[in-house]
Amino acid sequence: MTRSNKKTRLTGEQALAEAFAAVDHTPLLSQLGVELSDEYLCLALTHRSFANENGMLPNNERLEFLGDAVLGLSIAAKLYERHPDRPESDISKMRASIVSRYGLADVAREINLGPHILLGKGEKLTHGGDKDSILADTTEALLGAIYRQHGFDIAREVILRLFDSKIVGASARNRTLDWKTTLQEMLAEAKLPMAVYSDERTGPDHELTFYVTATVGQTEVGHGEGPNKKTAEQQAARQACELVQANPGAIKV
Q: Quaternary structure (predicted)?
């Protein structure tokens, strides 16, 4: 009798359960400060790449849609209260900067969300768990799950706690929408040379990945990666802004 060495292929639901159980989500829930049922947490963490590779399972995009709305209202109401004398144009820009992809990705990294996201093989190979877009979308999905399980008041409390430093530091300049312009302004104010961007690209023409380095004087101040040059440059400029703001003296001209 010949034994088969073929590994039994898991069904989509089995693959999902196995992948979800492989990671301890207790630290994530601790960072969120609320309990979530396995059903809601698993759905919020399921990226479409994983869902599509495992029989078109439900993914987190509907929760993301819901979380985006809850997030926008919570931040808008808080800014309205904090800035009673500022015009709509100012608080609108503040809100946009806080709930932007970059703002959401910052929060995701603070709570170490990346390792918890269920990704397909392709996204894993390209480090999808550290991509701003995936981190931002999954953060919104988690907020949507919290809203569904606990209601608006609890969801708002979580949002205001996670985004507190961004709300306090919100600026009408809306820097996160154009980090390259913001970097130019910061460098000019610090009397430093303008940034120079160099790029490399890898992969086939239909799936290029761009790597960008931002240099000021003799110092590399930021690195970025993305599916196009613009995105990679924005990431590099964002890193550079943080360095210039924290320690401009570290830049050798």
A: Homodimer.
- Would residue 199 show up in a list of annotated catalytic residues for this protein? no
What are 185-201's pLDDT values in tens digits?
Answer: 888 888 899 999 999 98
SS3 at position 87 = coil
Residue 137 labelled as part of a binding site: yes
Buried b (16+ CB within 10 A) or exposed e, 172-211: eebbbeebbebbeebbeeeebeebebeeeeeeeeeeeebb
Q: Is 140 annotated as a binding residue?
A: yes
**How does pLDDT run across 230-244, given as a tens digit for each residue?**
888 989 998 998 888
Per annotation, catalytic residue among 13, 68, 110, 205:
68
Name the catalytic one among 53, 140, 157, 220.
140
Distance CA 131, CA 118 (A): 13
pLDDT tier at 175 (50, 70, 90 boundaries)? very low
CB of 172 within 8 A of CB of 90? yes
68 as an active site residue: the answer is: yes
Angle, alpha carbons 223-135-156 (nearest 5°):
130
pTM, two decimals, is 0.70
